[in-house]
TrEMBL record:
Organism: Symbiopectobacterium purcellii
Organism superkingdom: Bacteria
Stated name of the protein: Flagellar protein FlhE
Pfam families xref list: FlhE (PF06366)
Keywords, ordered alphabetically: Cell projection, Cilium, Flagellum, Signal
Residues of the signal peptide: 1-18
C-alpha cells in the first residue's frame, strides 16, 4: 500500500504540470488462469469531467499495474490504443510511444502468459492505472 501511495504522489503532479492538461484512470485488473491466451483489461479513458478533446494530442503516458502473488517471468504486458500497442516491462513506467495520438484515446492493458495450459497459481492483476498528459 505504501508503494502505491508513493507512486500516486509522483504521478499526479506529472499529469497536471506537463503540457496543457492531463487525465488519469484506474480499473480493476484481471486474473490470468491459462497460458497461451490473450487477456485484456477494461478500457481506460477520460471521463467527461476530466475534459480534453480530440484536437489535443498525447505527450506522455504513465502506467502502472499491480500483480498479486508470484510474478511469472512468462508474463508479457502491452499498453494499447486502437492505433498501436507498446510492450511495457515492470510494474510501472512512462512512454512517449503514443505521442501525437488524440488525448481522448482509450487504452487497454493486454496480458499474455507464454506456454500452454492452466497455470498452477493464477496471476491476479489487481489494478491498472494510467495518467495521460496532453497538449
Amino acid at each position: 500500500m505504501k508503494r502505491f501511495s508513493v507512486l500516486a504522489v509522483l504521478l499526479v503532479p506529472l499529469a497536471v504540470s506537463a503540457g496543457q492538461g492531463g487525465w488519469n484512470a484506474s480499473k480493476t485488473g484481471v486474473t490470468l488462469t491459462y497460458r497461451g491466451q490473450l487477456f485484456n483489461s477494461a478500457p481506460l479513458a477520460p471521463t467527461p469531467v476530466q475534459g480534453g478533446n480530440p484536437q489535443n494530442s498525447i505527450t506522455v503516458v504513465y502506467w502502472r499495474y499491480t500483480v498479486d502473488g508470484i510474478y511469472d517471468p512468462g508474463l508479457r504486458v502491452k499498453l494499447c490504443t486502437v492505433q498501436r500497442c507498446v510492450d511495457i516491462e515492470g510494474g510501472s513506467g512512462a512512454t512517449q510511444a503514443f505521442r501525437g495520438l488524440p488525448a481522448t484515446s482509450e487504452f487497454r492493458f493486454t496480458y499474455f502468459l507464454e506456454g500452454k495450459g492452466r497455470v498452477y497459481r493464477p496471476i491476479d492483476i489487481r489494478q491498472v492505472e494510467i495518467a495521460v498528459n496532453y497538449e
